[in-house]
């Protein structure tokens, strides 16, 4: 991120950088608030244009609004390119691509009909503006959630693949049981139904009508209801583990102090923690974790 | 809240205050129970009146009931105004406004048709009556829930804005994929569908019919199913943190005692001072100043 | 429960008691398994009889089955009455009433048509039969769940009344917004819709059609999605609290041992815990909690 | 699992075993990736064949694909049988049966129409291929989830039987209340509706229409919403318990060290020896042997 103009850059460059990229001056904060407004209004314009009754009446006006905003975002994008030290580095960064995406669809729509709707991608830019509010706070919370999800990614992968396997198996059984005349016209559609049921969404566009099918659906629903506890448990466990880790650390501190007080210290526990469950307090000669049985 | 009549106020004023505002006498409790009944019955009357078959038969009677209750609540409101020490302070307090709202819609309905239904706002007054039961208990529990929500407000804000961004993006993709003939007639409607799906409500008033649309919907559902773990995890984590805090505290006590036994005790307190009152000597894991209660 | 026949009762009485009421003999276990079968089969018979196509074919047979089971349960009930020491005490106990309810509806159906379906109340008797499996285990787990729910009953009450208040308010707004022609024909029906939406059930029998209504519904759904975290958090917090309690206890033990080793114990932390978050380890002169900032 | 060919087996046997059964060589990993692809493609072919429009166009081609994959899996199965030391042991193992199931339905379909769809059982084989990725990690996570579910199996059983009892009782009440003309045509169908409602799936294929029915449904939904907290709580509690266990352990370590400083040290280790390797000196709260990693 250290792409700020060099201290020897012209004054206006450094000034624009502070306004456009940072939020610690009054001008910078005002810029961010205006940008926020522009993003919300431009996305709203695209959304409203798709409503046929509104389009019939205000269509041309909305299209003008759209082009104005595209112009504004284009100018902003060029300005950002201009003031950073290494323009290419910015252009290829994640944020740079998002900034570009806010402009491209309008231009693309001149060639390809329908691509204009991609303008809603601009909503993603909202994330950029979070820093008007307490930046650290927001980023911190976002990272907290992401890191909890990341730490549980293997568990979530195992969970999702079990879910899909279950959905494919149950969907196929229902396809055989209920058949096409009750809406289960193909296996992919039946798998779609199984996911709709397992996740407790339950549109009701397809639903079982035979007694056997309803019994199987009942089982599937209860399964879905029971296993919804699993992702929640996974994330909560990750949180609890963090919480417990800090408790463990505090207790470990107690142990350390107590150790210091003892003159002829008895051979205490191993320093290392279990790489799998993070529990401490292993025998110095232990080969396996007393808590989870994994190697230490 | 210390708006009670001055000790030199006439006896009847102080007496009515105790009955109307407090619940520690038998008369006060009886008053609260009658008020509870009146609120429930009056809301029920408004609700029943909206049912056309009941309105056809009992309409006039229900309207009489409504006016009687409006009269009762008006008398109660005036009485409250009369006995408090500073009437304006009460009238502008949150509870005072709620008490007023229980009366206004009926009067407003004389001028503006349809505003009568606002009378259901009276249900909010139920919260006032909680104090017949163990007041402290209820308020305490409510505060426990609220403080957990408050402590996680940034996380919840980040979570909700990600949810909305996801809904807008997915809704637009579905609008392009499925098109108007399958019910996805506009982007706002498609975003509405995306929220219906993500939250696992699943009305089924709009649902995908093409294979591509159903595949995308499947992804969205599983996402919704997975991220339902996040708000739960956020709140649970807040709880766990409190729980862990107390465990940490206990372990900390062990450390402190052990420390006391050691001759050259290491510095046990935080280096930093309180930014508000400049006091030192905070626990290393303290989040609040022991002296002024401000954040450290 | 100590309603066993006196030791001086005739041998057959004490024997039947052991078989009918207890499950520690082979005969007692066999009796329980047969009873389990009888309950499941009799409930199944009542359920199948209500299916018109099955009733047309096997109706008379099913009615015979029903009467046979009623006879069996009547004999069982009388036998239980006969062998206990204080028959009235058993008859008025919770289990005694459930045993009676398994018989009454059949007899009642001779007088009152339709009451026969109450026979499904027999399913409740299944709970009696749990003791064939490891009784203590089951009762223990059931009590664990119940005690967690009981400990959170105030929180749940506060939560439910807030939920109802929200549903009544939102339902009324939708009634005013959408009106009868879109299915929101009365306030009670709209409140029903609001509960269907808040709980993420989402039948779709009523759903908003105006843009304003769909926007409000979107808000309601996200609220429902967010507050589903609350009951989960409440129960989990109760569990975490128990878990933390045991950790605290262990840490306390550590403290106790450490204390015992120290000769001249220095003044440690305050004895009192924070009344708000229950954390310990405050400075003796602390005025505020280091963890939550509340007064101590 | 120790079914590898004896060291004296011919070289090609041992070589094929390493490729087919293990994933620690480049060839073994390539084999697993190809197998993964074959499974996904073959399941996809079965699924697509069931879509009538695709079947009309590509039916014969898809059937050829199916037979090719059946041939491939048959060869693979025979190869596995050939190289293991004890073929019968492999054939009767869980994984062996799954491998066989990937072949049988195609052959069965020659005799019995419709059994071909059982080929989707092949998805279960995906679990076999997890070991291309970090095997230990995946298995570990899967075991973590499973062990948490296993530890709570009694609680889940109690919970599910209460759920079913509730569904049967409520379903019957609704059957009596709403009757056949509103879709509640039989008790089994009404119980199906009750489960659809309790689990918050809410298809809407059956939904109450009378005011009384909707009131009862409202109660049921709120119950379902409240008790969804229970399975989540159960699993989370299991996790918290583990987390607390490690905290307790650390605190225990502090206690142990402190104890060591005291003159007459109490016996700090468990009395019992490891049932597998007979080693002594386990922590009092150890769940696994420090020496061999087996359960103690």
UniProtKB/TrEMBL annotation, chains A, B, C, D:
It holds the Pfam family Ion_trans. It comes from Hymenobacter actinosclerus. The lineage of its organism: Bacteria, Pseudomonadati, Bacteroidota, Cytophagia, Cytophagales. One of its GO terms (cellular component) is voltage-gated potassium channel complex. GO terms for biological process: action potential. It is found in: Membrane. Coiled coil: none annotated. It is a multi-pass membrane protein. InterPro entries: Ion_trans_dom (IPR005821), VG_K_chnl (IPR028325), Volt_channel_dom_sf (IPR027359). One of its GO terms (molecular function) is voltage-gated potassium channel activity. SUPFAM superfamilies: Voltage-gated potassium channels. The keyword Transport applies. It comes from the Bacteria. Residues 29-240 form the Ion transport domain. The chain crosses the membrane at residues 30-48, 60-79, 91-119, 156-177, 211-235. Keywords: Ion channel, Ion transport, Membrane, Potassium, Potassium channel, Potassium transport, Transmembrane, Transmembrane helix, Transport, Voltage-gated channel. This is Voltage-gated potassium channel.
């Amino acid at each position: 991120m250290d792409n700020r103009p060099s201290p020897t850059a012209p004054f206006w460059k450094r000034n624009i950088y502070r306004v456009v990229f940072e939020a610690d001056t009054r001008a910078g904060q005002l810029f961010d608030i205006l940008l926020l407004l522009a993003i919300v209004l431009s996305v709203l314009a695209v959304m409203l244009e798709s409503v046929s009754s509104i389009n019939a009446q205000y269509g041309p006006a909305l299209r003008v609004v759209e082009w104005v905003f595209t112009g504004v975002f284009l100018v902003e994008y060029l300005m950002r390119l201009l003031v950073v030290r290494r323009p290419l580095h910015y252009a290829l960064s994640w944020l740079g691509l998002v900034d570009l995406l806010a402009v491209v669809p309008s231009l693309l729509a001149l060639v390809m009909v329908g691509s204009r709707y991609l303008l809603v991608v601009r909503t993603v830019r909202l994330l950029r503006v979070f820093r008007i509010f307490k930046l650290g706070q927001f980023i911190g919370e976002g990272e907290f959630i992401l890191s909890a999800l990341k730490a549980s990614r293997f568990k979530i992968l195992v969970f999702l693949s079990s879910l899909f396997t279950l959905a494919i198996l149950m969907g196929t059984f229902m396809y055989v049981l209920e058949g096409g005349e009750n809406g289960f016209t193909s296996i992919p559609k039946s798998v779609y139904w199984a996911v709709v049921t397992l996740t407790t969404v339950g549109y009701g566009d397809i639903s079982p009508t035979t007694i056997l099918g309803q019994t199987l659906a009942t089982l599937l629903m209860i399964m879905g209801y029971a296993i919804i506890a699993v992702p929640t448990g996974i994330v909560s466990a990750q949180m609890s583990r963090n919480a417990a880790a800090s408790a463990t650390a505090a207790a470990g501190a107690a142990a350390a102090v107590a150790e210091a007080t003892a003159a002829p210290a008895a051979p205490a526990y191993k320093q290392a923690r279990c790489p799998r469950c993070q529990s401490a307090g292993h025998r110095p000669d232990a080969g396996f974790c007393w808590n989870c049985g994994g190697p230490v």
